[in-house]
Design brief:
257 residues; alpha+beta; six-stranded mixed beta sheet; 7 helices; 14 strands; DNA-binding
DNA sequence: ATGCCCCCGTCCCGGGGA
């Protein structure tokens, strides 16, 4: 079972790149972020025509998440509990072949002084509450998405230049590590503990050509999923295409019994 | 120090991204 996560920066602008990739990669489940599409405009038929299943949770212009799968999608929940005032479409869960998956688009949090950063940290706390509940279920869980956190210096081409940013802020990193302390595994680091691997390169200043990247897209997996983990990687291919997303997919492979 | 680039929308600028 191959499960991937990808911030596509608009599902409509990236439709061909995404459909081509899921077919070529032999991916089974793709967790998508930044669809930037209202539900009524989501390009459902492109995935139905492939024989895939699709669920989505969007809003106008910004944010938006989706899950597409070769296998039936069950028990879908949209939104993250803990704040009735929060109307940003950043979270959705579903069960596919007995695996509970979540697609996560964590707030960026810049600037670090003010409401946006407070929202990020509050959102992280809500995610931790949900993550603890999911661990209690003792089933394979994959939390995949754009966490907007650079967990350590080796995950950044220029740690000094990024100091003071919301993505490297100590509170952001603590909140991310907390998910690991309570029991989730940073799947990429399980297989590649010290390799420099990025998932995002800015559109600006030739960041891709200079390999000025950061690792901010993550797959956090429960112990029951970790037991089934055989491989993890990042596919840089889509970032090098014409009109790419600024993120590229991260994937993991779980053995199925 | 700032912007570079890209996407969206009652749309040709401004907000948001990271």
């Amino acid at each position: 079972m191959r499960i991937a996560s990808w911030n596509v920066n608009s599902i409509k602008a990236r439709l061909e790149i995404v459909t081509d990739w899921v077919v070529a990669d032999n991916c089974d489940i793709l967790l998508i972020q930044e669809t930037k599409s209202q539900d009524m405009n989501f390009p459902v038929s492109a995935f139905i025509n492939l024989g895939w299943h699709v669920v989505f949770h969007g809003q106008k212009s910004y944010n938006g998440v989706a899950i597409i799968s070769r296998f039936p999608i069950e028990d879908v929940t949209a939104g993250l509990a803990g704040d009735d005032e929060d109307d940003q479409a950043r979270y959705m869960e579903a069960t596919i072949c007995g695996i509970r998956v979540a697609t996560i688009y964590l707030p960026n949090g810049n600037p670090t002084q003010g409401k946006k950063f407070d929202y990020k940290i509050a959102w992280f706390k809500r995610l931790e509450v949900r993550a603890r509940e999911l661990l209690k279920a003792e089933i394979p869980v994959v939390l995949g998405g754009d966490f907007n956190v650079i967990p350590s210096d080796i995950d950044c081409y220029d740690p000094d230049g990024w100091s003071g940013d919301a993505l490297t802020h100590p509170e952001s990193i603590s909140a991310f590590r907390k998910l690991v302390y309570i029991g989730f595994c940073d799947a990429l680091r399980e297989i590649h503990p010290s390799e420099v691997i990025y998932t995002y390169w800015d559109y600006q200043a030739g960041a891709w050509q200079r390999d000025n990247g950061v690792r901010i897209d993550h797959l956090l997996i429960s112990p029951e999923a970790q037991d089934k983990l055989v491989n993890v990687g990042v596919d840089k291919g889509p970032r090098g295409l014409e009109k790419p997303s600024d993120h590229t997919p991260i994937w993991c492979e779980l053995v199925v019994n």
